[in-house]
Amino acid sequence: MRKRLQHFLSRRDFVRAGIGGVAGALGLGTVAATGLAQTQPPAPGPGEHGGHGENLMQLVGAVDHKRNGFDPMQILVDWDFGTVSALPNGQTLREYEILAFDKEIEIAPGIFFPAWTYNGRVPGPTLRCAEGDRVRIRFINAGSHPHTMHFHGVHPAEMDGVPGVGPGEIAPGQLFTYEFDAQPFGCHLYHCHAIPLKRHIHKGLYGAFIVDPAVGRPPAREFMMMMNGFDTNFDGDNEIYAVNSVGHEYARRPIPIQVGELVRVYLINITEFDPINSFHLHAEFFNYYDHGTTLDPTSRTVDTIMQVQAQRGILEFRYRWPGQYMFHAHVSEFVELGWMGHFNAVQPADFPAALAAVGLDEEWDRKSMQGSTVAGKGA
Ligand SMILES: [Cu+2]
Known about the structure:
With 379 residues, this protein is of the alpha+beta class. It has helices at residues 2-18, 21-26, 30-38, 65-68, 72-75, 197-202, 249-252, 332-336, 351-357, 362-369, and strands at 79-80, 83-86, 92-108, 111-118, 126-130, 134-141, 150-151, 175-181, 186-191, 206-212, 221-230, 240-243, 255-258, 263-269, 276-281, 286-290, 299-302, 304-308, 312-317, 323-328, 340-346. It has two domains: 2-65 and 218-369, Sandwich (Immunoglobulin-like); 81-212, Sandwich (Immunoglobulin-like).
């Protein structure tokens, strides 16, 4: 308990050193910061939102995404469909190559983490396919420790990517090809299952595995969000929490969406060391599909859901009015340590400016609208 309290205090000091503006100076808590956000004008014009974060509890500065080699804004919409061909029986084959290697990444401005990565990014590539596709993943371990790829899905034991079964742990310098038919449809994930498991997962070896239902889903603007955390001093507690690895990135750069359109979020929790993570949406409610394995919502009209580690699901919602809307973990400590962002809902005419304000373009717009491997079944 005392040790836990010391951790808590030291983490608070850590964040206080990293935050600026009113909230930081006064040491305001999250509740106060949230109150400030809700007094914001409801409909800022395009490009006007850049500085509003300075009044909130937020990590200050910017992360060098080029040096990281990935940008959380792009990870939202960066579907990896693999190299596509057809097997003799007509089944679609999707081939991927995944390289595991060690790499230091910046997870908050000026805060670095010695990650283990799939293809140099955390989370790893978002593998996307359709129900029933054959998936073939050539996994090469170029890292310093034995690793695996364990997929959540249906497959034979030797393709399960766990120690002692089939190929077991893949040693540095070795490779193995995982192959199976994608099922069931849903919002899934993969992660390393080498031992010690919590270290291998927490170091960054995980990614989304999205299997589209054969009948498709209604057209929507789609995002992948992986809730994660980082224990930067290796004391068994996270110092930074985030969605897609960079603390407060979507607070610094609100995610552009359009008023009235259907937004679909593939949400996954991979956070290690904390038993539960959560997602709360401001000023609107959503339908939720637990694990994404159903076509009808498993929860309707909710604004908060929780996920244990590896739990995941699909959120669907529409904003009615223009404005900036927060989303965050409803664990206040996580919010202060990086897990908070904004959607920037604008009218279609203002969308190009909203994209430009956070460094995005038409290509991002296209990816967010055309992620599915299956034609939609109509809105
Ligand atoms: Cu590993």
